[in-house]
Amino acid sequence: MDQPKTASVVIIGGGVIGCSIAYHLARRGQRDVVVLERETVGSGTTSKAAGGIRAQFPTETEIRFSLESLRVLQNFTEEFGIDPGFKQIGYLFLISEEENLRGFETRIALQRRLGVDVRIITPKDAQAMVPALRVDDLIAAVWGPQDGLAGPAEVTQGFAKRARELGARIVEGVEVTAIDVAGGKVRGVRTTQGDISAPIVINAAGPTAARVGRLAGVPVAVFPRRRHIFFTEFRKEMEQVLLSPGDVEDIGQDQEVPMDWGKLDETVTKAVHRLPLLERAKIAGGWAGLRPLTPDDHAIIGPAPGVEGFFLAVGFCGHGFQHSPMTGRMVAEWIVDGKPSMDLSLFDPARFGKDARLSGDAHKDKPDAE
Ligand SMILES: Cc1cc2nc3c(=O)[nH]c(=O)nc-3n(C[C@H](O)[C@H](O)[C@H](O)COP(=O)(O)OP(=O)(O)OC[C@H]3O[C@@H](n4cnc5c(N)ncnc54)[C@H](O)[C@@H]3O)c2cc1C
Fold first, then answer.
1. What's the pLDDT tens digit per position in 91-142?
2. Which runs of consecutive H residues, i.e. helices, occur in the chain?
3. What is the pTM of this model?
4. Helix, strand, or coil here: 108?
């Protein structure tokens, strides 16, 4: 599809976030919405996500985002005509240290108050669920039966398909090379296919968000960090298992992500300790992708400071897939209604101050759930 010369909203990036925003804007009746994707829809870091969805977050805002995702995924096939492959198989966190348990207890109190089904169980209960689990060094486990996983590609395609049906244009193979700003306001974008004038431009560029921010002169505290996932062979007698070393590395780039097979030994050793039966499993392959991290692990959503009409929906760390439904809805409300219906101050783009570039080391060697 050729790109138009004008738009009411230009969205840079056709990942799960950009497509969700396009869908929600179109659903709210916003005309002339254009998504510009330099490759193909969903080919960015969305294609590397494991698909995990959990309501177990530390803040009220993020828990509410997750609960909305669970609701959307339950009704996804009817709403979007694509089966998202949603499986509510639960999340089981294993705890071996007291201090860790205290942290979980505080978060669980908040999660339960907001209606999340989550509980602390004994190591024996955990083993009853996963008989192959080694539990002699555990003090507890946390079980969230509502949690699960779904297909990032299917969900992204669902958003894109309905966005198009509702009138949004999604143009693939076009790169935004400049953002026009005059008098402190966005005027449009320049691309490899020409110019588009637009009063609103949304940065949904995933791991490339900081670079796209610079096109408008806005520092954006998003730091792409590499994460590996290995997978075992799928055999009848053993479910396929995904293994990750939980590494968070700066590989100094935000596009191509080479695999480092040197990570495999350490990953397997850790996994065999927890599930000794994996000693018999064969590693069938793996992949690596970039997680768009921020200094405080929270996304950046809202109007960019200093440039009217420039919006940010970036920095989704290891949870951009699962928070895409609510992000799209909130950004659409912001644009159509002038403000979102929820307090989104947690994601305030101005919270890192003027020099967003200085905070990238906060993530060195920091593991997390996805
Ligand atoms: C190994 C791994 C496992 C993960 N597991 C999970 C998980 O279990 N659950 C979960 O919720 N999240 C997970 N994530 C995180 C998740 O993948 C991201 O948070 C999410 O995909 C971000 O989506 P996005 O749309 O912002 O980014 P992207 O999918 O990267 O989309 C941005 C798009 O912008 C395009 N773009 C960039 N610059 C330009 C430009 N100048 N012009 C035009 N187009 C441009 C890119 O080509 C790209 O397609 C995981 C990530 C990794 C790496």
1. 999 999 999 999 999 999 999 999 999 999 999 999 999 999 999 999 999 9
2. 16-27, 60-74, 76-80, 98-113, 123-129, 152-165, 209-215, 264-274, 324-337
3. 0.95
4. helix
**Candidates 46, 65, 192, 255: which one to mutate for ligand 1, based on the most atoms within 8 Å of Cβ?**
46
Per-residue model confidence as pLDDT tens digits over 171-193: 999 999 999 999 999 999 999 99
Regarding the beta carbon of 245 and ligand 1, being less than 6 Å apart is answered no
- The residue whose C-alpha atom lies closest to atom 38 belonging to ligand 1 is 205
Distances (CA, A) of 207 to 15, 210, 291, 317: 11, 8, 7, 9
Rg (CA), the chain: 21
Confirm or reject: Cβ of 349 under 6 Å from ligand 1: no
Question: How far is Cα 52 from Cα 39, in angstroms, rounded to an integer?
Answer: 24
Q: Concatenate the DSSP letters of all residues of 206-250 into one string.
A: GGGHHHHHHHTT-----EEEEEEEEEEPPBTTB---EE-----B-
